[in-house]
Amino acid sequence: MHLGHLKAPDLWPPVGLSKEAEEEVKMLNAVVIGLRYHVEGYAAALELYRFGKSRPAIVDRLLARDWQWIAIHEAAMRVWFLRDAMEIARKTWIRQCEPVAEHVDEPAMESALRLFDTHFPDFRKMRNAIAHAPGIESSNLKAWLKDDLFGVSKLNDDDRFELINDGVRYSMDMTDATLDKLVQVVRAFWSAFESVEHAFDTRGRSE
Question: pLDDT class for 70, splitting at 50, 70, 90?
């Protein structure tokens, strides 16, 4: 996936807004553009993961393995940060920015969030398991030993990261397919602003 093709909507404020409204639009514009950084963060983590997996001769074998786990944890956080950021943008930033709120396609944003949940079901549980790994390990150690379950997490040979939280197994693939899904979600969310761009273009943009 070439992330250069991930083009954010242009929400630069139109002419005729009050100074306060113009600043709100500019801030929202930055928030919406910023969604791509979570996708880029996953992409960067994926590259680090692959570098560690390649066991480069110039890097100690155990260090390379540690880099893989660092990359996996960062990748999982970036996946969840994307959903969190979209939800905050929808419920907070857009609602308090009237020039955008009156034109944005609310169903399209909701559809993007549903698409995320389809691609990454119950991902909050995975995020929480990573963020609170020591506590989860401690509270579930006896159950894991009794049921012969693995600990908080493991990495399979097919680049699938798995963990168990509250007795349920969750997984995330460290692959281009996951990156493609994130791109799909961001594009779906950004599509909600097409009508905003059109309305702003019609009015004319400020300097």
Answer: very high
